[in-house]
Amino acid sequence: MADAAVRLLALAEGALGAPLPLRIRAWDGSEAGPPDAPLLVLRHRRALRRLLWKPGELGLARAWVAGDIEVEGDLYETLERLSGLIWERDEPQGGLRPLDAVRSLRDPALRRMAREALLLAGPGLPPAPPAEEAPRRGGVRHTLSRDREAIHHHYDVGNTFYERVLGPSMVYSCAYWQQPGGTLEEAQEAKLDLICRKLSLTEGQRLLDVGCGWGSMVLHAAQRYGVRAVGVTLSTEQAAYARKRVADAGLTDRVEIRVQDYRAVDDGPYDAISSIGMAEHVGSAQYRAYASALYGLLRPGGRLLNHQIARRPLEREDAYRVDEFIDRYVFPDGELSPLGSTVELLEEAGFEVRDVEALREHYGRTLRAWVANLETHWPEAVRLTSPGRARVWRLYMAASALAFEHNRIGVNQVVAVKTTTSGDASFPRTRHAWLEPH
């Protein structure tokens, strides 16, 4: 077989109903497609079997993670060209076994195409998913034990790996790029300082950082603003790393790191709460309880800074489907909600929402910086985790960068206040107090 690429190209264009804007190189060394396009390499027939047994995004993701397909050329350009053909289309529901799918096709041309694909893929059962895939689970989402498992899957993959991707700041959320030529570390410090100013932190106050990660927020607030801070995380590896940073900074008397669910925090009141890139793990069914819990932990007049990724609203919210690749490989049980839903639920909990700032463009640039870090440290990243895990991260961060840049998702900082009964929120009349760094 020396013409596999030609046959693959014809099959792909027949299935998609449009020209494939990529060049293909097949396992037999043959190539087909536009000569100046990015090159999609199918290194093994197994890649085609993955797509036949699981059409759509998940089959393609499995082939990528397993190393059955590769991209030669610009990954961002490749994803741009594929997005309209694959990720923005409805995926097959339920899934059919390949032979059943062939028998179900009534159009003779489609039946011929399906048989051709099966012959080209070769015999064999569906390949096992890559080891990096989280198993699908039934039952109730966002119980305490299930959330711990989800956090473990994503965050407990080695702190050194995260150092290589995130850089010295060890901040895993959207940076705040004040200068066109600024560095990632400068942008992350600017983000942390912006949050401290929005919370109006002053010396001696108590700060709770929900989902504290590797401790960057609590360290910044304690060092620059003199607060006493508590950071909570479900990741044991994060907590160990953060505690060492706190000890090295000589702040053990002012900063405490706990392995604790936000639902178990009971030592309020706090003067301020920050939740930075954590609420995406809460889930829509639990969000009202999340907002109420944070409201109950604040003193009257206290502020919440909720920094959260948002999806675009849909005409029918019950049509929302969790992204299969993200759910299986990146953030199990993660859910995105529209900004309006988040604001509504915060208000229902009793908060007065005082400010919303959209940072969508900032996240695209942040993700591109993380991808660049990963690519710079690629051999070490593979050694520290696995080839599949490193490939998961490269794909998810690059695709997410494009999603932010094309307004498919956004990220917002919401400042909400537990307003006193007199109506006094002790809030500045303008944003001027937030503009100058501390």
From TrEMBL:
Keywords: Lipid metabolism, Methyltransferase, S-adenosyl-L-methionine, Transferase. The keyword Ligase does not apply. It comes from the Bacteria. SMART domains: PKS_MT (SM00828). Pfam families: CMAS. Belongs to the CFA/CMAS family. Residues 161-416 form the Polyketide synthase-like methyltransferase domain. InterPro entries: CFA/CMAS, CMAS, MeTfrase_dom, SAM-dependent_MTases_sf. The keyword Cytoplasm does not apply. This is Cyclopropane-fatty-acyl-phospholipid synthase.
